[in-house]
């Protein structure tokens, strides 16, 4: 049973060698038609118009396009082989933004495209798409498009569009509409108009495109002035390096623009196997006749044996980035608890530990138990027979997977002996930090730079004191009150912010439309003095085989302090998990690092987690949020075996759209790329970012560190077996 | 309390440097910000480039013959000389352990070749490694017989999975006496491995590692 699950996970489809070489002859069968160049809207396509093309599965890319009418920053993700998604942040010229007193509009929008049919024989590839379908509507439109290869280098597309693609605008929204939700009523309404494009791949680097577009930039032209661009657009694209592309285009010969794109594909790592040092090989045991004492197990009676062996193994593991927390040793069985600090795949840590055990343990030890520890809590045990490790060294990884047993770790220490000098454990770090703030309409990119000191003190496994101290040096994120909002008597007046002094002096400002300001006054926490973003004591435990708990108390995050408690049920071989969390928190003072304000709230969630096949995971949280609002968050994430993680989330609570404000409900995407993927050097470090549509007060949670699910999952069946190919690595 | 004093001293020294660099006793996986990592990676790359530029003229590389002579003098273990054609370098590798017919040879910088009775079955630490090879042609080659057999080679793909590539191979005598060649095709590529077979041993061979690393020439210095 487990065998077949393993087989499906490990024996992935045989790849054409071209994939490994990284050649561009993307003619893989049963894949959607692959893109040649990117549109100004960041989708595969012609110039402005879409096509039925897709990117290679999993591609993450960005396109920056600039013309007289707009500057568009597009991030594209091929979420599934047939589903392309784009998140766009645009500066739309010629449209007055009265709220912010700008002659241009900063606008977020989101697109989806689904490839319905592949090209086959005479049939073209067909796709349907929604453009800007949850935004303010400035680019809102829909299309159906077909694309066909005419010759190996020439490709033609034709389609029908609605809304913006047909030159009709759905902007501005009706008064009172906060935007940010699917505008289903508008989809495929209004008059439909045709569009089409032809692209010619001149050579490996250069391609040319011509298109007929019905979008005439009516709003933009009214504001900017000049003539409407014609319907015929032309472009030239030049590709270079690893996934870079520059383009020059003209919209109807009236306006010229330029764009730059790049793409990353998680499957195309610079060093697919990593550059980590080779592991120490298995050391087979000598024949029983050659070491009768070692084989007899008599050595186990010697009280000096275990300390000496444990020290030697601990030193060897330390060179592999593994902490040997504790060890149990008897005549025929050895158990080690390791904390993996180096490899993104737990299987690689387990595989290297198994080999080092064959080199360190006397020959009578036949059962090897490797227990993974997540910051002190044991999360899973891999049990191997030493003779299997010897027999299967450097063979296909699934063989040793079938020979290994994965079980819940024993929650109690039993006969495990803590390694000398392991606890208490003090770690510290001083370095610079950089904070970025995106999407502020007044200044889309804000930053803060300063110095940060961080220390953790682990009194015993699972009991950890942690603190961070920050001192800002410079930056453009000054302390500022929240926005004053629109003046009801004069809606066209530009939006202003409360000065910090006024905001602090008038407690009634801390609620808006009856909703307490729990996140929208975050900028009040940007003070010039030293700040303490975190100062906590956390206790992790495992009361039963399948239940994990966490209690964290102290200054949990910059804006809240209090107590947070969590429990998680997650059997090691189950793709399903349940969790519950309850927090009693109080809002921290804006300036006084240890002070609190009056707002106090209890938040809590029950959560369900599920790991689907192929690296898709889902999480549902239901409960009460920071502003006292109740609702649910759904999160969908795609993970790759190399550690790439890309997800999207949405939260809807019982706040009405008006109470929530612009955007109607909270939503965003998160991206996390392991550093080892880019550098080849083994490391568990990641570059991560969460982009929210807007920071509002509804649907907000406390940002407490060390939530359990991600902590325990690395060594559980789905992720462990996904990375099992690295066991003999 | 001297450790506390030394920590204090280190903290003070660090605080002065904090704007430019970072320090501490945390292991690297505890997490710098991505920007710091990016800066480190970039400065590391520049430094290594500079280092190699500095070193190049100062220290002429030893010839393979010199390296072999020196290794034979100082290292009592079995030794091979491996010439990586795509990397443009030759290295002496010493056996670190053997497990049945399988031998692991390593360089001092801990890159490894894994050999099974003279057939290359794996590499480690080179960045585009051969995870494991299953050459069903091995018996034919060692016996010096002609015939056909499959060969499966497993690699890590960029998405982190181990994936097999299978090839169809023909084994037969090469143009030179005493040399057996193995011609393999599959997945749109072909490659040719050559083996000098003497009494069931393979003292010299040229074998294909994979699409990125190409060929390696392996010569036994001390069996």
TrEMBL record, chain A:
<dbReference type="InterPro" id="IPR010344">
    <property type="entry name" value="YbjH"/>
</dbReference>
<feature type="region of interest" description="Disordered">
    <location>
        <begin position="272"/>
        <end position="303"/>
    </location>
</feature>
<feature type="region of interest" description="Disordered">
    <location>
        <begin position="475"/>
        <end position="505"/>
    </location>
</feature>
<feature type="compositionally biased region" description="Basic and acidic residues">
    <location>
        <begin position="484"/>
        <end position="505"/>
    </location>
</feature>
<protein>
    <submittedName>
        <fullName>YjbH domain-containing protein</fullName>
    </submittedName>
</protein>
<dbReference type="Pfam" id="PF06082">
    <property type="entry name" value="YjbH"/>
</dbReference>
From TrEMBL, chain B:
<protein>
    <submittedName>
        <fullName>YjbF family lipoprotein</fullName>
    </submittedName>
</protein>
<keyword id="KW-0732">Signal</keyword>
<dbReference type="Pfam" id="PF11102">
    <property type="entry name" value="YjbF"/>
</dbReference>
<dbReference type="InterPro" id="IPR023373">
    <property type="entry name" value="YmcC_sf"/>
</dbReference>
<dbReference type="InterPro" id="IPR021308">
    <property type="entry name" value="GfcB"/>
</dbReference>
<feature type="signal peptide">
    <location>
        <begin position="1"/>
        <end position="21"/>
    </location>
</feature>
<keyword id="KW-0449">Lipoprotein</keyword>
